[in-house]
């Protein structure tokens, strides 16, 4: 990326936003992508798309190479259903990953591979919403991915939210505890990097969220 083009020229940026008739306070994910693509074309630079599941970072070669190796060595694999709770080798590798990066011991049997965050989030909401009869609400740290809320509605659960624009740090912890103390929240769902604003929660904020989730026995669901 050519740093000499940054910060972006405000007048040019405003003209492009005007051309797209975009309201940045209420812009959707796909509209934001079109806007950023326009900026990339205008300035001849590449942007990382944190509002999308594919940010534009080239895949490491180890992934495709391993897929080719496994498919080549096991001719029956493409026509075989995997175990419904995940391939044992992958479950074990997931447990090792959690230990290496989070220093948390998790049994492989408790590691359930999914086809993506949307799939995993749907299952997590379904489980969380049925743990306690009085806890029937998913609390969102907004803005977030709209489809998650459609999943909540589909599951027959209620939605509540905290706007991260107005609540960060200690203010976020204070607001979150007020919500959790009602006993109505079954899970808190957020994305960091945030989808679609690119906002990232700080380590201190994630720690505060974790402590409060533990205190009130509420499930945390991170779409990242």
From TrEMBL:
Residues 78-219 form the Aminotransferase class I/classII large domain. Its cofactor is pyridoxal 5'-phosphate. Pfam families: Aminotran_1_2. GO terms for molecular function: pyridoxal phosphate binding; transaminase activity. The keyword Transferase applies. GO terms for biological process: amino acid metabolic process. Belongs to the class-I pyridoxal-phosphate-dependent aminotransferase family. This is Aminotransferase class I/classII large domain-containing protein. It comes from marine sediment metagenome.
